[in-house]
Amino acid sequence: MKFNQPNLYTLVHLQVFLFFSINLACLQANASSGKETDQLALLKFKQGITSDPQGIFNSWNDSLHFCNWTGITCGRRHQRITSLVLEGQNLFGSIPPHIGNMLFWRLINLQNNTFRSEIPLNLTRCSQLKMIYLQWNNLTGKIPAELGSLTKLEKLAFYHNNLTGEIPPSLDNLSSLRVFTARENNLEGSIPNEMGRLKSLNIFSVGVNRLSGIISPSLFNITSLSSLAVSLNQRSGSLPDNICFTLPNLQTFIIDGNYFSGPIPNSLSNASQLQMVAFSSNNFVGQVPTNLGNLQSLRWLNLEFNNLGSNSSNYLLFLTSLTNCSNLETLHFSGNNFGGVLPDSVANFSTRLTTLHLGANQITGIIPAAMENLVNFISLNIEDNLFTGFIPDQFGKLQKLQALSFGVNRLSGQIPSSIGNLTQLSIFSLLENKLKGSIPSSIRNCQHLYGLYFSANKLSGELPKEVLGLTSLSQILNLSQNSFNGNLPTEVGKLKNINILDVSENNLSGEIPGTIGDSLTLEYLHMQGNFFQGTIPSCFASLRGLQHLDLSRNNLSGQIPKDLQELPYLQYLNLSFNDLEGEVPKRGVFINASALSLIGNNKLCGGVTELGLPKCATRMMKKVKSHTPKLVVVTAYVVPLNLIGSGSFSSVYKGFLPQVERPLAVKVLNLEQTGAIKSFMAECNALGNVRHRNLVKRITCCSSLDYKSYAFKALIFEYMGNGSLEKWLHPCEEGENQKRSLNLLQRLNIAIGVASALHYLHDLCGKPIIHCGLKPSNVLLDDDMVAHVSDFGLAKLFSINSNSSLSQTSTTGIKGIVGYVAPEYGMSGLTSKEGDVYSYGILVLEMFSKRRPTDEMFKEGINLHDFVKAALPKRLLQIVDPTLLPREIANEVCEDDEIVEAKETNHHDNLSRVIVNVRQCLVSILEIGVAFSLESPMERKNMADVLKELHLIKKTFMDIQMPRNKPMEDD
Ligand SMILES: *[C@@H]1O[C@H](CO)[C@@H](O)[C@H](O)[C@H]1NC(C)=O
Ligand SMILES: *[C@@H]1O[C@H](CO)[C@@H](O)[C@H](O)[C@H]1NC(C)=O
Ligand SMILES: *[C@@H]1O[C@H](CO)[C@@H](O)[C@H](O)[C@H]1NC(C)=O
């Protein structure tokens, strides 16, 4: 191009050209430096991160363009960052000021991390920002007033941080702002009046701060508002009665936890879109508007903890109005001054109602049974009112109920068993009423229960094992201050998740079951004010989390288990007013005299000096028998391989002790089993002072913890080398390989031995002892085949002076000895010497007939007694154990009893003399069996009589059978 004659056109063109070129270059330079700035800003951001457990920033490296880095979005044309989204990545760090250089971004979302810095002022340079989500971090400092310049901002979320200072009034410039949420910070001052200018504002949420003053009236002019939440601040004053006229879109109105006073505005019902109203925990007074029925969308109304209502039923009229709110799900008005009778109309609430809480008022009347219609109830709480009458049986229909509290009222009658239909129930409180009767066993169906409060009623009867066996109970089981009696069921050990167990102030008795040591999560255990007896089980030591233990005012005796001092968290121990003795430990909870109460136990000594107890004179040296085994030794030497028998309450092992040469039988109680503790105690007590050659000799009772710290109870006996009579009588059934049988003389001796033992127990050993469980498996044979009666797990001790020799027996025990138990036991539930006599009679019949009383053939009508009786004396062969007849005579006698009869009269040779003798012996002994197992207890002989007869039978038998034998030593 030639420029010899420049004209205007070219000049202008050139200028335009130059202008564009320069601007283009400028723009390009800006774009590339802009991109670098963005990348640099991101790298600075990355540097500010101190912890990135998810490895978000691994992709933030040179091999990728930053627009492809995790969490980054760029604009398509200019490749400038438009959004940064790193939500919930567990990031720790600070937000650097460099992010203010990302001029094109619109969205920053760093919510739910742990950013600790202030909000950088430089952020306010990013004029394109529409959404800032910084909630759920640890941001500090103030909300920058400069944010007011970001006029495109629509959503600003700061909630759940540590922001301080005031809400800057400059935010009123944010004309596009729709959402402002800054709840759960430490913001102070008042809500600026200027906020009323935010005409697009939808959600304004500043609850849980320290904002004070009245709500500026300007806020109520924002007609766009759908959610207004200023709960838990320090606001005060009353709400203008007309506030809601200008809020046609309001759906959520939350002002709970302030100091608002005065009445609830009547205009509330004009905010016709309202769904959720929370006015709780203020000082509202007077009537609740009775036009709330207009609020057709209302789902949630919470008015609790105000001063609403009076003792007049009129103040409950709003309830009738609310029955028109067909969407109502939750209604709370607990903790007010409502009184008067609860209107029946509450039964007409929307069936959508899931929650009704009206506790802590003074409402009277009965619980309307028609509330059974509200089938979607999940939580119903009417506690701490003045309700009377019964718990409606119909409430069993409310099968979705999870929390039900009728506590602290004046309800009477019984707990309906329909409660068992509430299978979803997790919290159930009836405490402090006037309920009577027992706890319905149907409660076992409530397998989601974790808290049960039945305390301070008039409930009685035994504690149902169904309740103690509810393994779901994890929070509390409170049965205190009632009239429950009987034992604490061993099922208590099934409460493996429980924290608080309170059975105090009842009439409970018996031993504290060792299974309580299985409730490993127990922290608070209250058993005071009962009649518990026996020793404090050392199993308490396995309750490692125990903090509070109260066993005061019982009849506990023996020593304080030393193991209690090992409980690391125990900080309160009350053992006062028992009959404890011996040395008080000095460590653990026992160090601190103020954490401990031991008064009213006059035989205690030692302990820390602050307790002021007398010194223990010498170390409490109890006479320890040389061979009394240490438990540790027992557990160490008992191998299950050595199992020699088992019953419902226990397993018996063969064991060895270093101190004792002979083997021992260790009977380990199965504490899971109902009645095992009772059985253990019975056996320990019964055998405490008795000695007889035909009783199994108890060496000791152990009650302690095993190596796993579980409660362990065992009885240690002499080992009986020849096992039980049962095994000898029924070797095949008992799986014995060896075919062995007892001869007639052996059986005779055993019968005499057992009779001697019973005679001794009944008549000769001070307090009569009723065995109650006699059967062949409880008759053990030692190496010399001498019988030893064992298993006193069902035994009863009677005082001679007591006018009745009868006492109640447990049905659990009876089951174990079906067939041997006297018929009158079943009818009267009583035990007696005659009962043992019956069992003995059956035992004899079994020994010589080899037929069990439980044999199939005795199922219908005829029993063992009848069977033998009918055959005696002539048809002996039909009933007698064939092995009792010597082989050489078996043939003679086998064909027909009549032949034997004939031989008996016609032949007088030796063989027939023997036959006749055997026969006579068998008939006599079976007659004894029959006479002893007579149905009527009055007609049965006593053991002393029978013993004489048995000796006579034996003598006759011996004289003829083996005239040259030495006399058998049998007694
Ligand atoms: C991002 O990655 C995609 C796919 O790997 C690729 O096609 C694209 O060019 C990358 N973007 C940039 C800006 O490098
Ligand atoms: C926060 O993020 C964690 C991890 O992603 C998530 O489990 C949690 O539910 C989130 N919490 C909130 C309040 O968003
Ligand atoms: C932050 O903004 C200030 C004021 O505009 C500026 O001087 C400073 O350089 C900015 N900081 C960064 C790291 O860009």
From TrEMBL:
Q: Which residues form the Protein kinase domain?
A: 638-958
- Establish whether keyword DNA repair is in the entry: no
- Record keywords, A-Z: ATP-binding, Leucine-rich repeat, Membrane, Nucleotide-binding, Repeat, Signal, Transmembrane, Transmembrane helix
Q: What is this protein called?
A: Protein kinase domain-containing protein
Q: Is this entry keyworded Transmembrane?
A: yes
Origin organism of this chain?
Hevea brasiliensis
Q: Where in the cell is it found?
A: Membrane
Signal sequence interval, chain numbering: 1-29
The family database entries (PROSITE patterns) matched by this protein are listed as: LRR (PS51450), PROTEIN_KINASE_ATP (PS00107), PROTEIN_KINASE_DOM (PS50011)
